[in-house]
Amino acid sequence: DQQVKQNSPSLSVQEGRISILNCDYTNSMFDYFLWYKKYPAEGPTFLISISSIKDKNEDGRFTVFLNKSAKHLSLHIVPSQPGDSAVYFCAASSQAGTALIFGKGTTLSVSS
Amino acid sequence: DTGVSQDPRHKITKRGQNVTFRCDPISEHNRLYWYRQTLGQGPEFLTYFQNEAQLEKSRLLSDRFSAERPKGSFSTLEIQRTEQGDSAMYLCASSSPAESTDTQYFGPGTRLTVL
After folding, report:
1. 8 A C-beta contact, residue B102 and residue A96
2. H-helix or E-strand containing B23?
3. In terms of Cα–Cα distance, which of A47, A92, A96 is closest to A72?
4. Which of A28, A96, B23, B72 could lock onto B92 through a cystine, CB 3.0 to 4.6 A?
């Protein structure tokens, strides 16, 4: 039973446009959500996080939105750059500092 | 800040052999985590330590797996009697509750291939 779902395996976007990556979760006990980016043969790199008390967090080109009632979060990248091409993982935990539950990832391709 | 390091980066072994991986966390981080990632999947939690205490173990961590963090610094993950199904990327992460978000930072991983 997958508690964190990324239903789009891939996304293609042109350079300069917005990339929107989506994530759904089923466990209402999740309190803390993160996005990681992963290049081949490397470990995941932390991008941005949000706690359940907020509905938006912004860091430069990256913004995460949380809709608790829909159990949905999204990552917006504006503007998208070719260097953003990677696999993006959504992760959640019941509290910060405990086990993370990851989705299967979405492969983002940004073309110039 | 040198980041999380893992050794070796790659390991090829024959079925039935034992293997051991090492993880060195970010120096001021007292929490250390192990995850496993197979092709097409996200990382799956295995276990985590706070200092030298192992606080949580996943049911994925069978009896053939053992993790230690004897002095609360580096950690080792040993797999005994390896099976082909153990082939995966083994990821280590560390975090600090002193940081407001206690974010987990990952190392580069150890890719295990069991022949």
Report:
1. yes
2. strand B19-24
3. A92
4. B23
Query: And the tokens for A46?
Result: 């932390």
User: Which among B35, B41, B102 is the nearest to A104, CB-wise?
Assistant: B41
Q: Are B43 and A89 in contact (CB < 8 Å)? A: yes
Distances (CA, A) of A7 to A20, A45, B77: 13, 21, 32
Minimal Cβ distance to A97: which of B97, B105, B111: B97
Q: What is the pLDDT of residues A54-95, one digit of tens each?
A: 999 999 999 999 999 999 999 999 999 999 999 999 999 998
Cα B111 to Cα B7: distance, rounded to the nearest angstrom: 10
Whether B70 has its CB under 8 Å from any CB of chain A: the answer is no
Asked if B94 is an interface residue toward chain A (Cβ–Cβ < 8 A), one would say no
